[in-house]
Structures are given as structure tokens and as C-alpha cells.
Amino acid sequence: MSIADRLKSVKQSIPSGVELVAVSKFHPASALMEAYDVGQRCFGESRAAELAEKAAMLPDDIVWHFIGHLQTNKVRRVVGCAHMIQSIDSERLLMAVEAEAVRQEKHIDVLLQLHVAAEETKFGLTPDEAYDLAVRVAPSLTHVAVRGVMGMASNTPDDLGRVAADFAAIRDTFDRLAAGPFVGDSRFAVCSMGMSDDRHMAIAAGSTMVRVGSDIFGQREY
Fold it and tell me: CA 9 to CA 168: how far, in whole Å?
């Protein structure tokens, strides 16, 4: 099946109102163009150098999402290319993105990355840390707009109860923030959760944005 056909199938499986980020990390620019040529405009990358390289060679109307762990020494490169950073996992990183956006005179959207999964290796804020950051720091930002949250469920395909609980916790945190620090802020509208293997459960739990890679592009070319 071609990339175009797989993309069409994925889009048909996603209800209206849920945005699709095509996760293109580790795939060549030619693969992205196959998706672009049939209408996909939002792509997700997880490495600063790869994002910068692809952004320089692909069409200007692509909306780039940075979805990987972002080190502060890579902030300048990512802010220069990305439209949204989904992986704000600390106050230090948030303030570094704000400072760089001010320096570049650019406004950029971000998501607060939540850590609710069982694996200790995953990055992210606890729900309480995200709430505290939203209360203390978000109102002072001038060039960064916090648009919502991003999170991943535990990698336990044999324990769907845990996966469902993780998605519920992410959505609950989004709702808590929307009713609290971001009440009245129409920009705070993104609950990014769900990937190729678990997007249907994520959507059922209230996801508004899914990040799908292998179901569109096939296995990654490392």
C-alpha cells in the first residue's frame, strides 16, 4: 500500500475535530512529499537537525511540530523552524523557548508534556507540576502560547486498562487546566495523545490531536 493510500485510511479512521500530525521522523523528504502531494500539511519531527534539514528543503506551507525531547542547547534551531513544540517538560525549557522566541521576534505555540506512564524513562511534568507552571509562569509569557498538553500512555499493549487510565489522566489534566489557569483562553484547545497503535483509545478518551507515523510511512528508516 502506498503512503497516499495509508494516509487516506488513517484520515478516514479519525473523526472530525481531531487533528492529524504525520510523524515523519527518520523518513526521507521524498516520503513526506508523497503525503504532502495528497494534502497533508502537518508533520512531526523529533530531532533538531533533521527538522532543520527538512524544513529548508520542503514547501514553506508545511506546519512543523517538534515532538521529541528537546535539550536547551537545541532550542535556537527548533524555534527557528517549528510552529509548535509539543514537548515542554520543564520550567527551564519553557523559559529557554520564551527567551529564544523573543530573540528571534517569533511567536510559537507549545504544549506541556505530561508524564503519567509507568515507564520512568519518559520525560514530562506531573499533572500538579503542569498546573503550577500554568499558574506561575504562563501569564508572563509574551512570545510563547501554551495551547494545551501532550502525553503518552504506558507501553503496555497487554494491559489496556492501564493505557485507558493513562489517557484519562492526561485528558483530566487538560480539563483541569482549561477550567483553571487557562479558563477563557480559546487558544488552550489541544489535547495531544494517541499514536499508531493506540489512537482509537486516545480519541475515545478525548484526544483532539493524534501523532501517527508507522501507519502512514511504514517502519522507520533509521
Answer: 26
